[in-house]
Amino acid sequence: MAEPARTTSQQPKDPRPPTAADAAPGVPRPGASRSGGTGDPAGPASQPGVTRRRLLGTAGATGLALGAVGTAAGYAAAGSGDPATAPLTSVGAETAVFHGKHQPGILDPMQSRGHLMAFDLAPGAGRKEAAALLRRWSATAERLMAGEASASDTGVALDAGPSALTVTFGLGHSFFARTGLENQRPVALDPLPDFSSDRLDKARSDGDLWVQIGANDGLVAFHALRALQKEAGSAARPRWEMTGFNRSPGATARPMTARNLMGQVDGTRNPKPSDPDFQQRIFVPDEPSGTGTAEVPGDGSPRWMAGGSYAVVRRIRMLLDPWEKLSVTEQEAVMGRHRSDGSPLTGGGETTEPDLEKLGPDGTLVIPIDAHARISRPDQNGGAAMLRRPFSYHDGSDGKGAPDAGLLFICWQADPVRGFVPVQRKLDRGDALSPFVRHEASGLFAVPGGAERGGYVGQALLEG
Fold first, then answer.
1. Which residues 6+ apart lie within 8 Å of 267 measured at CB?
2. Residue from 221, 269, 262, 268 nearest 245 by CA
3. Per-residue pLDDT tens for 129-161?
4. SS3 307
5. Has 266 been annotated as catalytic?
6. Which residue, 117, 132, 280, 372, has fewest beta-carbon neighbours within 10 Å?
7. How many CB atoms lie under 10 A from the CB of residue 73?
8. Looking only at Cα atoms, what is the longest distance across the chain?
């Protein structure tokens, strides 16, 4: 339950955080032409270089989009000239990069809106159909992340920029049997063990394919979701979907660690890209030791996973009614940290190392033996570490009027057996927070490395 640290190039500065286009030479700024890699179906929405904002100007001029004229007039009244090329605000202008060593949505700063969705391949669909689908999805993701219109644009986000949109694709355990690639299934994708806090809904767990969408604008995120759903066509059908949120950029006076729905500063101990062992803990090596042969237990990740990672996805419901009945002091004893600023009960600031041996005036441990901060520490779990990048969620109330709210927990690691599993086992045995949370859905997905230009995510597996 955490917020990943920003890299130096992503660190926000007043008055506006730099965009990826500012930081990376050669990365097109919003509105720049960027090929989707799949040809150019007829129609302006599919032409490279035609941005959603350029389409807004076209629609407003021809009267094809209700509301577009009013928006365009607003830009013109502000003295910005052509409404289709008016400068975006800082949030809209932020751009992430689709191609790279790793997929987007892992190291990028957390966005304010998110969608998680799993698909199952349709009956009869196999390796060929899966490859074609991932090629279509990759081309659409590249186009949308660059701020360009999708091939069959719905018009939902015509007047928006990329808004830090990221799209990430993963493969579930069942994907490999469906595509006849069982001998390439990583050992790390073996099912997670059962935990006593699990109350899992199988219908909202697992899946052949997993998609993570994040953006700093709700309409941009939804637009990407609909585009990918439509691109699935007859090859795959939705299995489950979850929607989440985080604090919006600029909502606080300075960048700070997020709070969860329990009011706690959440993510202080997330590993940072500057850590010397960050890459080896979070990503599969460039040259994995594994052969990809399932008959060789423990042989590591297969070679097609080079530069990839493994995502554990858990829908964790927070039992907010009983939690909020606790006093602040009682909540802090459960967590081992002060609610006000996330600092340990033993003193200092948020990033101060807790003194786990410190005793209070009554001779008892200041940080209780079952405090969440104590039990979840890497040095209390054999050095286990994972990069947590969650979204909060709220899905209304249950039949008894209790809020159905909590955390869409997403963590990244080079091997879940060494990352997520040891920590969750330790929490399962005696975490003071356990009575106030319930794990209701779960998934584990292999997330291949980033796609090369002109290629698609998973190509090394499906065409290898």
1. 1, 2, 3, 4, 257, 258, 388
2. 221
3. 999 999 999 999 999 999 999 888 889 999 899
4. coil
5. yes
6. 280
7. 12
8. 77
For residue 373, what is the enclosing H or E element? helix 372-375
Task: Tell me the two tokens of residue 325.
Answer: 């009945």
Tokens of 405: 């709210």
| Cα gap 72→59, rounded to integer Å | 10
Alpha carbons 159 and 147: distance in angstroms, whole number: 10
How far is residue 139's CA from residue 133's CA, in Å, rounded to a whole number?
10
CB 366 within 8 A of CB 359: yes
Helix ranges (DSSP H) in 65-161: 68-77, 90-93, 127-145
Report the alpha-carbon distance of residue 399 to residue 75 in Å, rounded: 47
Question: Hunting for tokens 């599969």 — which residue is that?
Answer: 284
Residues in the chain predicted with pLDDT less than 50, given as ranges, are 1-48, 55-81, 293-299
Tell me the two tokens of residue 49: 């270089």
Neighbouring CB atoms inside 10 A of 414's CB total: 23
From the list 214, 215, 220, the residue with the least C-alpha distance to 157 is 220
- Give me the count of residues in the chain: 464
Supply the DSSP symbol for 359: B
Q: Residue with structure tokens 């009614």?
A: 321
With a CB cutoff of 8 Å and minimum separation 6, the contacts of 391 are: 110, 114, 116, 214, 244, 245, 246, 407, 408, 410
CA torsion, points 332, 335, 338, 342, in degrees to nearest 10?
Answer: -160
Give the separation between CA 260 and CA 247, rounded to whole angstroms.
Answer: 10
Render pLDDT for 324-373 as a digit per residue (tens, 0 to 9).
999 999 999 999 999 999 999 999 999 999 999 999 999 999 999 999 99
The helix (H) or strand (E) run that includes residue 177 is: helix 175-178
In terms of DSSP H, where are the helices of 317-369? 320-324, 328-335
Query: d(Cα 308, Cα 458) in Å, to the nearest integer?
Result: 10
Handedness of CA 244, 383, 104, 6 (dihedral sign): positive
**For 223-236, how does the pLDDT look when each residue is reduced to its tens digit (9 = 90+)?**
999 999 999 999 99
Residue appearing with tokens 């992503």: 10
Q: Which of 208, 217, 266, 431 is catalytic?
A: 266
Q: DSSP of 431-448, one letter per residue? A: -TTGGGEEEEEEEEEEEP
Q: Which helix (H) or strand (E) is 61 found in, with range?
A: helix 52-62
The pLDDT of residue 84: 53
Under 8 Å between Cβ of 273 and 107 = yes
Q: Tell me which residue has tokens 């419901």.
A: 317
Whole-model pTM: value is 0.82
